[in-house]
Design brief:
The chain has 7 helices and 6 strands. By secondary structure, it is of the alpha/beta class.
């Protein structure tokens, strides 16, 4: 009688293990969550920000792009980059605009964000005007609690100079 119980118990365990091992993978795993993001990078300096109307234009841009991103199921991120030479001056400059999600300050033209978004060579023949707004998009995929993949950022538009930025913002800052 004991032998029968052990064999029956072993059969039950083998049956359960087989059912788990051959269960369809789709039922136990969830698909990775993909988040689409729109990023606006504002690059400016104190002299071009305060007297040019850029402070209000950037505030308006933030509101307009936030609404558009939400309406298209995307997240909006606003980055501020100041070309002021010191960190303190850069923070003072960007504080005029209100809230940013990310900032990069100090270093003037050698600031890593300036080099990344404008380039590595600056001369009078190159169109490296300030202020600028660079619009980017990217995807962020969360594959679980310890898995995150960020796609490369893709530039979708660039506005150079106060007139170009202001005109775009007055039109509602439409996303391409």
């Amino acid at each position: 009688m004991r032998r029968l119980r052990v064999v029956a118990g072993a059969g039950l365990i083998v049956g359960l293990l087989t059912a788990v091992a051959f269960a369809p993978a789709a039922t136990s795993a969830t698909a990775p969550a993909v988040r689409h993001e729109v990023i606006a990078v504002y690059l400016g300096a104190r002299g071009t920000d305060e007297q040019s109307g850029m402070v209000q234009a950037v505030k308006d841009m933030r509101d307009l792009l936030t609404k558009q991103a939400v309406s298209t199921n995307r997240r909006f991120i606003l980055r501020g980059v100041s070309l002021e030479p010191t960190v303190e001056e850069g923070l003072q400059d960007l504080s005029l605009f209100g809230k940013f999600d990310e900032v990069s300050v100090g270093g003037n033209w050698t600031n890593s964000a300036v080099v990344r978004y404008i380039g590595t060579r600056f001369d009078s023949a190159q169109a490296s005007g300030i202020p600028q707004v660079v619009l980017l998009e990217r995807d962020v995929t969360e594959g679980g609690p310890s898995s995150l993949t960020v796609s490369p950022e893709r530039e979708i538009a660039r506005y150079v100079g106060t007139r170009d930025i202001d005109t775009w913002v007055r039109r509602g800052a439409p996303l391409p």
